[in-house]
Amino acid sequence: MTPLRSSRRSNVKVHPDPADASTLREVFGTFATGVTVLTVGGQTPHGMTANSFTTVSMDPPLVLVCVKRDAVMHDSLAEAGGFAVNVLASQQETVARYFADHSRPLGRAQFDAVEWAAGERTGAPLIADAFAHIECDLWRTYDGGDHSIFLGVPVQVRRRSEEDALLFLCGRFCQLNLTSTG
Questions:
Q1: How many CA atoms lie within 13 A of 74 on its CB side?
Q2: Which of 9, 43, 156, 165 has the largest CB neighbor count within 10 A?
Q3: pTM to 2 decimal places
Q4: Distance CA 69, CA 77 (A)
Q5: Sign of the torsion formed by the C-alpha atoms of 44, 50, 52 and 57
Q6: Beta pairing partners, 65
Q7: What confidence tens digit (pLDDT) does each residue in 39-57 have?
């Protein structure tokens, strides 16, 4: 493989090895994402901050979440058969940080730090004041390298119209100030 030539613009970083993990993380981080907390209910409920969420299809309706194979959420989600995606609102950065913290308690105790209610269809915790909630039945699971790709069928959805969503870009939480242009 031939190394990339240097760019004329001095602020452009050139990396000859695209397989370098830190480089990949830096480059992948240039794509802005929403911030979610995935949750599962049951005997041992669990939550996890995730930005690897997207819609897949409208017919049939499908969403996708990716979970690292060694994460507690991986086996929890596979066993639960259903999950919820809590799309966080712009003021919920502390919630995102909390569910990303590996030192938080496990099980039901981890939800003592937030206000929540059990989802009507899945029993998965729905975090109060989230921008949107999407309860899903697990449809299929696929191999995705060091992650598994979980596809879910939305069975209940809710959205708060007066909020903006929390975003993540270049390793930082961000908020948009949306204004109408016309």
A1: 14
A2: 165
A3: 0.80
A4: 11
A5: positive
A6: 53, 150
A7: 999 989 999 999 889 889 9
